[in-house]
Each structure stands twice: as structure tokens, then as C-alpha cells.
Amino acid sequence: MSAMKETFNVLPRLSFRWVKANELLLNSMEVALDKTYKTHELQGEGYQALQKEDLPLSSEFKGVNEQMVAMAEEHHNTGLYIHVGENEEKEIHVTHVLDAHNSVLIEKNVIVLEKGAKMNLIMDYSSDETETFSNILNKIKVSEGAELNLIKIQRLNSFSRHLESRFSTVEASGKVNYISVELGGKEAVVNYMTDLKGDESEGHVKSVYLGFGERVIDLSHHMNHFGKRTNSDMIFKGALKDKSKKAFRGTLDFKNGSTHSEGNEEEFTILLSPKVKSYAIPLLLCREDDVIGNHAASNGQIDEEKLFYIMSRGMSESEAKKIIIESHIRPIIDLIPVESIKDIILAAVEKELTGE
How many domains does the chain have? Predict the structure, then answer.
């Protein structure tokens, strides 16, 4: 008898079923909801353990799926309320290390930036070789003129399932800059929805991913333009090897009233094996005129001439490929404002590429 399947990251507008891109199907998992969890390390100020603080979700937001969102709402075993006051600046580092004693992470975070506030928030997820489960729900409000830089690094082992649902609202002249680095997990599934509510608000999402072995990476990002002169861009870069599988579902949605707004989405994947599967499903929805929406996607193997040139300088084939892949993703990593976090990411990339 085949295992029961669970549906994740359903497209907001369904395509033909034969395309096999409308959703992700994974085997159902039993999750021990009574497991406790202890956060490894917290650095910075402006946070407290989550109590009854909350933010509403849009009726459109389903996260990775409604069941996982409900699990995080009702059964979270850790979580923070992060508040940055008017015109304040904060930096917070949250470090999670999953292991045999901390194998189930159900996390709910509520993050509020008041008018003119600015914050760098780093969220780092790693593990030992224990099979783990993580389900994260982030609710975010960025007020007028505020700016949130959120860097997430996921470098779990190859036996673990990692899920993240993130919903954000951005008021007038506010800005969110999201950098997401997905380097680990047996299954890594993320779903971000950003509502650009205020005029001249901005949403920027940059993502790096590596798929090795039989890893499944499923990335869904939905940018809703509500205000006038809003601006967004989504840029995704990665590489796939062995029998790994990646799907990118990017939606730009221009709502009524979003005149003079602009959105861009780009996705570029290096294919290192004929057995990998890579799907890119960019979607443009529009209910307003005088807007600009652009999308681009490409999949391709490493350029043989470039590979030959680097090898002619004394590099082995594996070393040359590593250099090419690092140069492919480095522009996004270089956007990270914290040098120590760059070093962590580059070390994790090195480990993935060399298998050491």
C-alpha cells in the first residue's frame, strides 16, 4: 500500500494537471506535538518569549499548507515576540540546533517594526545527523518608513523535513529585504506572501539553494501589490545535482489601486546531472493598468568552455565546478550585511559542494 500523501504549496491559479506543477506532494508524517524544544542561542535585544501577542493573517495566505499553519498557531513549542520601537535600530541573531533532544521544532514568531524602525534579524537552522522536523510560522508587520532585513540560513542534515510559512504586511515607504539560503534538508518547503499595502512600499526577496542527493526543494513566493508606486523583486539562484528536485512558484499580483507599481521575478538554476528535475512557474496576475511586471527563468548546464578555461589553470573538474557554482550564488550572499554570517554560509556551501 502506498503512503498517504500531503499537499503543499498549491499554485494560486491552477495550471493543467499534466504539467505536474500545481502543488507538491509529500508523504504524510506523524509529528509528536507534545515534544519540548529549547532554542540554542539568542543574541541581541528587543525580543521576549511569545505569549499572547499576535498578528492577523490574510484570508489569501495558506502558507505551505493550512494544516501546517494551524499546527504552528496552536501547538508551537517555541517562539518570539520581536518589537522594534519607533525610529529604533536593533539586531537579533536566533540560532537553532536540532538534535536527538531537540528533534521537533514548531516555531511561531511575531515581528513588529514601528514607524521608522530598522532591524537586522538572522535566523540560523542547523542540526546533527538526527532525523528532525521543523515547522516555522513568521508573522511580520513593517510600519511606515521602517526596514526589516531578515537573513535565514537553513543547513539541516539530509534526513530532515523543513517547512516555513511567512506572511508580511508593509506600510507606506516601508521595506522588507529577505535573503533565504536553503542548503539542507531532505525536504525544504517554503511559502512567503508579502502584502505591499502602503504607497511606495518595497519587497525584495533573494534566495540561494543547493540540491544534492534526492533533496526536494519547493519555493513559493507571492508578492501582492496594493499601494501605488510599490516595488518588488524576487531573484533565485541555485544548483541541482544527483537526483534532486526543485520547484519555484513565483507570483506577482497587481491589485486594484496599485498603479505605477513594478515587480520583477528571476530564477536561474545550474543543472549538474541529467537526472535532476527543475520546474519554474512564474505567474503574473493583474487587476490594474499602468504597472510593470517582468519574469525570467532559465535552467542550464555549466558552460563547457568556461569549465575548460578554469581547468586549464590547474584546477580539477570538481574544483572548477565549485568555483563556477560559488560565483553563481555569490552575488546574493554578498548582500548580507553581517560578515560572520557570510562566513557561516560560505562554509556550509563548501561542505555541500565537497561532501566534507
Answer: 1
CA 286 to chain centre: 24
Rounded distance, CA 78 to CA 72, Å?
A: 9
Q: Which helix (H) or strand (E) holds 317?
A: helix 317-333
What distance in Å separates the CA atoms of residue 16 and residue 250, rounded to the nearest whole number?
Answer: 17
Pairing of strands 41-43, 89-98: antiparallel
Residue 183, classed as helix, strand or coil, is coil
Residues 6+ apart with CB under 8 A from 239: 209, 210, 211, 269, 270, 271, 272, 325, 328, 329
Strands (E), the chain: 5-8, 24-27, 41-43, 47-49, 80-84, 89-98, 104-113, 118-127, 133-142, 147-155, 161-170, 175-182, 187-196, 202-211, 216-225, 231-240, 245-254, 262-271, 277-286, 292-300
Cβ count near 81 (within 10 Å): 18
Full domain range(s) for residue 70: 5-354
30-55 pLDDT per residue, tens? 999 999 999 999 999 999 999 999 99
Residue 16, all three cell numbers = 493543467
In the DSSP assignment, the letter for residue 198 is S
The amino acid at 212:
F
CB-CB contact of 228 with 201 (8 Å) = no
What's the whole-model pTM score? 0.94
